[in-house]
Design goal:
Layout lengths: L10 H8 L12 H14 L9 H15 L3 H23 L5 H19 L2 H16 L5 H17 L4 H12 L3 H6 L10 H13 L5 E10 L7 E4 L2 E5 H9 L9 H8 L3 H4 L10 E11 L4 H20 L5 E10 L2 E7 L12 H13 L1 H8 L6 H13 L5 H6 L6 H19 L3 H9 L2 H18 L8 H6 E2 L6 E3 H6 L1 H7 L3 H13 L3 H31 L5 H28 L3 H20 L4 H4 L7 E2 L1
Antiparallel strand pairs: 1-4, 1-5, 2-3, 3-4, 5-6, 7-8, 8-9
Helix pairs in contact: 1-8, 2-3, 2-5, 3-4, 3-26, 4-5, 4-6, 6-7, 6-10, 8-10, 11-12, 16-27, 17-19, 17-27, 19-20, 19-26, 19-27, 20-27, 21-25, 21-26, 24-25, 25-26, 26-27, 26-28
Protein name: Apea-like HEPN domain-containing protein
Organism: Georgenia daeguensis
């Protein structure tokens, strides 16, 4: 959490620190996301797209799941819209084919009504009130607070309001930052009551986004134009070497937007002083007229427009695409408003990645026996080999090389398509129907999520201790074969010490709940039930994303991002079972039966009152490597 003056653990200071900063919270799947996606489906999806009724059922489940995390104030205002939306989706899912046009038309109306309501100031106020109420409870739950922050973030973005700016102002009302106090010590009277602070926050949620005529300036490297200035619709492209020299020097040659470019490059100090001995830049400046609009999201929109132009040329000619350079600038109503010097699409580093090579060598040592068994069988079956290729291509996004150098050549949407295709290949190898195979693999998601949450709780608590020199650290962390391992049983035994060390009011409450469940079979069962319910929703959403991406139906980026962990889990589980099948000469179906048996034993033990502490009593259990 961010430090703010007076962050004494009170709900106001804790909530102020938990609110996103900068540009707001990265997009996540929320009730707003699915409502917007339903609008896209109703507007754009062809008649044939509705033939698979599971798509409508999945969206209905997402609406219900999204509404379930909202508070009473929000639900009181939005429930009629949610009922209309789920009712219309249900009608599309169960109605006769002859009525489908009318049913989709009705869905189009109610979905746009729901989206408009989600963009309305009164509903933003209600969402904020529910967020504040969750933060004010005696035992605030981060799993309640975070989804409400994400929803409010999405509602602000949907209304064109800069969430980072608005959250900063809301945080200052709750607990003024040092910068705010230095600028205006009386901005928020220190003797204000909680009620007065919350009342002062309401107008901020109702305040509309400022708007103006927005013009974006971007730079692209490794680029060249057929002429010095090239106009293509709302985009005007400039040869940087020619235009910058003419903009900075006494008037050599006039060109359109010359004076505006002069003002823009004055903010880029690397270009503001022209070095006559410098080599050519081989860059293009792109001016994109975005029209009258709120400034928020200007850069993403402008980049998308230029990339679509460049991408089309690259696809048709096979020419290398331009690389995005770091400088960008926004001009609003003729005045330079915002500029940034960020990272661009850099080429690969020429120096070897020594750390990465060491990690690969370590992995070879760890998996030597398994690899030896696999290689001893000869050539891999064609379906498994193809699945490995697909998974490898999908792994570009998550690779260390991409994290360091931005080398991925595919988008996150493509990852989902590749991973689902890989699962279908592995299903073919196993001799199973792909849907049934995926369902079998997904059955372990709930237990995996429970382990993941426990690991988060332990690591969050450990962040408050003295690292490797602290006795608490060595009680729960070990390094067998040089790899970090957590003991959940040990964490349960010293949970009071861990909780006391956990920083952050919200994290501490969540960690306490998770660690206590290790010794409480009923509590663990309830958590697993919630993760099992999540499995069903994610299965439907992943299927919808796959169908949309394959058949040209609307798919929100947040939808794709929200199922990527689940998709990665499923495809890796399928690959693990297939590799074991080859190495051990056992059918995949037998391995799945054994996995199901182990899972049933665990769940039956919980139902009979046996806690995870008891289940993980053997030396190798209760650890996450």
């Amino acid at each position: 959490m961010r430090f703010r003056p007076g962050n004494d653990g009170s709900w106001r200071a804790s909530l102020a620190a938990a609110l996103p900063g900068g540009f707001g919270k990265p997009p996540s799947f929320t009730l707003y996301s699915v409502s917007a996606e339903v609008c896209d489906w109703a507007d754009r999806a062809p008649f044939s797209a509705w033939a698979r009724r599971d798509n409508a059922r999945s969206m209905r489940a997402d609406v219900e799941a999204g509404l379930s995390v909202c508070g009473e104030a929000f639900q009181g205002q939005f429930q009629p819209f949610a009922d209309a939306l789920t009712g219309a989706l249900n009608q599309v899912a169960v109605g006769p084919r002859v009525d489908r046009d009318a049913d989709v038309a009705r869905l189009r109306v109610v979905s746009h009504q729901a989206k408009a309501r989600l963009q309305s100031p009164p509903l933003r106020v209600a969402a904020w009130q529910d967020l504040a109420e969750a933060a004010r409870t005696d035992r605030p739950d981060i799993t309640v607070i975070e989804p409400r922050i994400a929803l409010l973030n999405a509602m602000l973005v949907g209304a064109g309001v800069d969430p980072g700016e608005r959250f900063r102002r809301l945080a200052d009302v709750l607990s003024p930052s040092a910068a705010t106090l230095a600028r205006d010590p009386d901005a928020v009277p220190p003797d204000w009551t909680d009620a007065q602070r919350l009342e002062a926050a309401d107008p901020l949620l109702r305040e509309p986004a400022a708007a103006g005529h927005c013009v974006a300036w971007l730079t692209f490297a490794a680029a060249r134009l057929p002429e010095f200035v090239l106009e293509i619709g709302p985009a005007t492209l400039f040869d940087a070497d020619w235009c910058i020299s003419n903009a900075l020097a006494p008037p050599w040659q006039e060109f359109r937007y010359r004076d505006e470019l002069t003002r823009v490059i004055a903010h880029d100090h690397g270009r503001g002083t022209l070095d006559p001995n410098a080599g050519p830049r081989h860059e293009v400046l792109a001016r994109v007229d975005l029209g009258h609009r709120p400034p928020f999201g200007w850069e993403e929109e402008a980049v998308a427009q230029v990339r679509s132009l460049v991408g089309l040329v690259a696809i048709r000619t096979g020419a290398p695409s331009w690389r995005r350079a770091g400088f960008s600038c926004l001009v609003v109503d003729g005045e330079v408003s915002t500029y940034s010097i960020g990272t661009g699409d850099e080429p690969l580093f020429t120096e070897p990645d020594h750390y990465g090579m060491n990690g690969f060598a370590d992995a070879l040592a760890d998996y030597r026996a398994e690899l030896a068994g696999l290689l001893s069988t000869g050539r891999l079956p064609a379906d498994v080999a193809e699945a490995l290729r697909l998974i490898g291509e999908a792994g570009q996004i998550d690779s260390r090389e991409n994290a360091l150098n931005g080398t991925a050549t595919i988008a996150e949407q493509t990852v989902i398509v590749l991973q689902v295709a890989a699962v279908e290949r592995l299903a073919a190898y196993s001799g199973m129907d792909s849907d049934a195979f995926m369902s079998e693999l997904a059955a372990d998601w709930a237990l995996a999520r429970y382990h993941q949450n426990l690991a988060w709780a332990v690591e969050r608590c450990l962040s408050g201790v003295g690292g490797g020199g602290d006795a608490i650290f060595h009680r729960v962390v070990s390094f067998p074969s040089g790899r970090r391992s957590l003991s959940f049983v040990a964490a349960f035994e010293i949970r009071d010490q861990l909780i006391a060390a956990c920083p952050g009011l919200f994290d501490r409450a969540r960690a306490e709940t998770l660690l206590a469940s290790i010794g409480d079979a009923d509590a663990a069962s309830r958590l697993l039930a919630s993760f099992k319910a999540e499995t069903s929703v994610l299965m439907g959403r992943l299927s919808r994303c796959r169908n949309g991406l394959m058949h040209g139906n609307p798919v929100a980026l947040e939808s794709v991002q929200s199922v990527r962990d689940f998709s990665r889990f499923v495809v890796r589980a399928g690959l693990d079972h297939s590799i074991r099948s080859i190495a051990e000469s056992r059918p995949v179906a037998d391995l799945l039966v054994a996995s199901n048996r182990r899972r049933r034993v665990t769940l039956d033990g919980l139902r009979s009152g046996t806690s995870f502490r008891e289940i993980w009593s053997t030396p190798d259990d209760g650890k996450l490597v």
